[in-house]
Amino acid sequence: MSFLSISDDVRLGKDVKLSKFINLYGCQIGDNTKIGAFVEVQKNARIGRNCKISSHSFICEGVIIEDDVFIGHGVTFVNDTYPRATNSDGGLQTESDWKVEYTLVKRGASIGSGATILANVTIGENAIVGAGSVVTRDVPPGAITAGNPSRFMRLIEDEQ
């Protein structure tokens, strides 16, 4: 028993490390990336090379994660600004009732455990998002942000 759920349309790079109890379908994962236990990566999500995706994280459709990114435990991405269960006719929504909204996490960024990243956000190169933050707007490159909603704290270069 493998405890892995990986559909045939998943594109795995070279030397990808997969933990048990993961769910991958229709996504792309780059070389040398590590995926922790209980992670789900949905269709049309892309994860770059040399990333670490910690356990219990949810990476939904429309999320693009560039190379060398760290995702802490229990990070959740959102791809719908106004999610609804039903459409205007009262039936359950299907894929035809909504449009995917995209999120970009640029190279070298780090997202702390328990953070929630809302749709239509770009997290800049080498930025750091604090644990438990709720990111509602773009994070500049090299910035440290934290809180709910996540707010700019300082630039990483200020510490060096």
Describe the structure.
With 160 residues, the protein is an all-beta fold. The protein has strands at residues 4-6, 11-12, 17-18, 22-24, 28-29, 34-35, 40-41, 46-47, 52-53, 58-59, 63-65, 70-71, 76-77, 103-105, 110-111, 116-117, 122-123, 128-129, 134-135, 143-146, 151-155. The strands form 4 sheets. Strands 3-6-9-12-15-18-20-21 form an 8-stranded mixed β-sheet, with no helix packed on it. It is built from no helices and 21 strands. It has one domain (1-81, 99-159): 3 Solenoid (UDP N-Acetylglucosamine Acyltransferase, domain 1). Belongs to the transferase hexapeptide repeat family. It holds the Pfam family Hexapep. One of its GO terms (molecular function) is acyltransferase activity. Keywords: Acyltransferase, Repeat, Transferase.
